[in-house]
Specification:
The structure is a homodimer of 458-residue chains. Chain A is of the alpha/beta class and 458 residues long. Chain A is built from twelve helices and 25 strands. Chain A folds into three domains: 185 residues, 3-Layer(bba) Sandwich (FAD/NAD(P)-binding domain); 128 residues, FAD/NAD(P)-binding domain; 121 residues, FAD/NAD(P)-binding domain (3-Layer(bba) Sandwich), CATH 3.50.50.60. The first copy, chain A, starts with a strand and ends in a 5-residue tail after the last helix.
Chain lengths: 458, 458
Amino acid sequence: MVVIGGDAAGMSAASQARRLKGPDALEIVAFERGHFASYSACGIPYWVSGDVERRDDLIARTPQEHRARNIDLRMRTEVTRIDVAGRRVRALDRESGETYWTGYDKLVIATGARPVRPALPGMDAAGVHGVQTLDDGQALLDSMGAPENAPGRHAVVVGAGYIGVEMAEAMLKRGFEVTVLNRGEQPMSTLDPDMGRLVHEAMDGLGIVTVDGAAVTGIVAGPDGRVREVTTEARAYPADVVVLGIGVEPETALAREAGLPVGAHGGLLTDPAMRVRGHEDIWAGGDCVEVLDLVAGRSRHIALGTHANKHGQVIGSNVAGGYGTFPGVVGTAVSKVCDLEIGRTGLREKDARAVGLRYVTATVESTGRAGYYPGAEPMTVKMIAEYRTGRLLGVQIVGREGAAKRVDVAAVALTAGMTVEQMTALDLGYAPPFSPVWDPVLVAARRTVAAVRGAGAA
Amino acid sequence: MVVIGGDAAGMSAASQARRLKGPDALEIVAFERGHFASYSACGIPYWVSGDVERRDDLIARTPQEHRARNIDLRMRTEVTRIDVAGRRVRALDRESGETYWTGYDKLVIATGARPVRPALPGMDAAGVHGVQTLDDGQALLDSMGAPENAPGRHAVVVGAGYIGVEMAEAMLKRGFEVTVLNRGEQPMSTLDPDMGRLVHEAMDGLGIVTVDGAAVTGIVAGPDGRVREVTTEARAYPADVVVLGIGVEPETALAREAGLPVGAHGGLLTDPAMRVRGHEDIWAGGDCVEVLDLVAGRSRHIALGTHANKHGQVIGSNVAGGYGTFPGVVGTAVSKVCDLEIGRTGLREKDARAVGLRYVTATVESTGRAGYYPGAEPMTVKMIAEYRTGRLLGVQIVGREGAAKRVDVAAVALTAGMTVEQMTALDLGYAPPFSPVWDPVLVAARRTVAAVRGAGAA
């Protein structure tokens, strides 16, 4: 078993295969081109913010721990070619410069994603940082300087998706004046614009300057080579540090060169067993694959550690001769900016239109606890259901404590293909510290039922 | 439309019917024998604790507000007879002593539940209080005296179910030394004993003395007529205040006398439209009915405001000529004792045995946030699945922040009839502040899959 990529998907696959096969029955070699394996990239914003103290806290399992379980993990070693016909991969040891071929019976491709880095003037200025890897995070922390020097200094975050808003919080916590430059109409383009607007307003309230419709045109460095400002078509923003949070795309160059099938979003195409289509002994998982969107009925690309871990489990089971499948996703994501919570699952309005579904929506205001209970905070729940059938299509929630994870209820309902009318009868936990007597999700379902039935009825 | 009982189920039914019918098309009369209508009995512990400041905060809608919507709500008026053949009810005005008959076309029975009050010596001593109604709560608060006098005084809570543990927290917050006398093997008999034990341990840690296997034999009053101690077979416990939190049973004497069908648990039997079985024009809902347990396939009695509100909605819709059904419950309940959270849904082991199901279980330890994220608190998740088929049967969670409401995911999965293997692929929200990369429910599902498959496999 040869694994390309030593992070969540690859090492989960290796570990699961080792667990099922026992310590000796399978030779496992894993190649990782970077300095770290099995770490939580999703945790980087919280390390940069100071919430997580030590980089090593983000490392789930060290190379030594993998090796102790008889997984031959080769760090700083990049696979530079896959020879499908010859069932072998070519590896480059980045320390020694040595290259060599290794044969495989079973191959697992877990090459992950790479950050989108627009080719803009000045991108190589000192103080411009991605936050994709632990190395990136360390470089940013080194570049930020001491916290006591932060007040009055400016951090510009480019992008207002999950990474962008999480990094905005991180830089705010580090004492910077934070500006988020967002190309889109509203922050969080994974939400509908009406819900994104709530995020924008909340970010204003937190003291984060968010500029929508701001396409970055360049980065201007000072004579010392360090970033001084970020320019858009409209104006220039002073910047002592720039964080790029523009998203990622599947890292599949190697797989493409090997002739493996890649989809419309650039990710490898697999079957539900995570086997690369048309290739009996090659699996792929994590940020480099496309997954089936169970609601839209189409394939899409989502880079998320929780999916990567599931893929790895499935691959490891199958490689070891067991059985596992990854049926697909419903598009659940949760995030926060300081005490603002954001959750979403399923289709946005524009996703529904894109796949030819007609729909109705309803948006309600509720609270995370009984209204009379201390700390009851408002939340806004938007629900989308198919026209006529009333089948749930999506839910978006923006609010405070208890808002984000409430989308999990909708995620299960989407998976089960429930209608919003069925959802109104769901037996969700109720007690005043945890929910109003009608949970916000139930309130939204009731209102959406009324929308499905047409105006007037309730 | 005549409604007997002016709390959650009855007034929800009246309000929904009024909403659908418009202000004038239906005459609605509602009788409430107490001083309050439409209030949150579930909120009483938090009012007693001081978390909720004012009694009126617990009142969702005043009698005046109901009357303003053309609902003729008659307070302090008890229905003393239902004449099914004559389609009329006899009312007793408790202020004036006057009785009169009122005819109905549609009758709604929402008589609620009454607290179980064991016939023990000394129960009428001053300082012995139930917490079923707002009047009860006020009497308890009056009886407790000023907070500055609390230290060193003893509160004995009889019963360790939801009300018992919530009242233990309330009395602790008010500064009392709190002892909980629990007849059962462990607190929270709605949990399996292994999970109840965790609650016991946590209550110990909070400084609440919990005595299991303690059947109260009597209450001893001092010469002033005020409670002085509570006795069990084993010993006597000093008590300045006694709170009875022993649970409730359906209040159906009136309905029984009228010949309406009552089930094995003492609750009225209805069809899914909440129509009393065999009676075209009589509906019943809330704490006085039995509901279908969708997992066990049997009827049971659950007194919970969230169900009562749903029943009322369904009844109001149907009385108004619309359509609504209440398909049943899966037995979800959440509670907390200080920062300890408790959630449960579906069947306990003994419930599964009682309905002849064979099952497997798995119990896992996890955290509510990524392990490295500040404030990640432990939680224990127990999952029960049917032997062979792997169908989810129940989930119990005991932990800290984020533990209780996680049962909602299982509640939806139970409703959808999912297997634990299907659950392992659920797309639940992941980000470090909200969940480990494998949500605790997914970890439990994976472990339960292994249990279903038999030892060894994972």
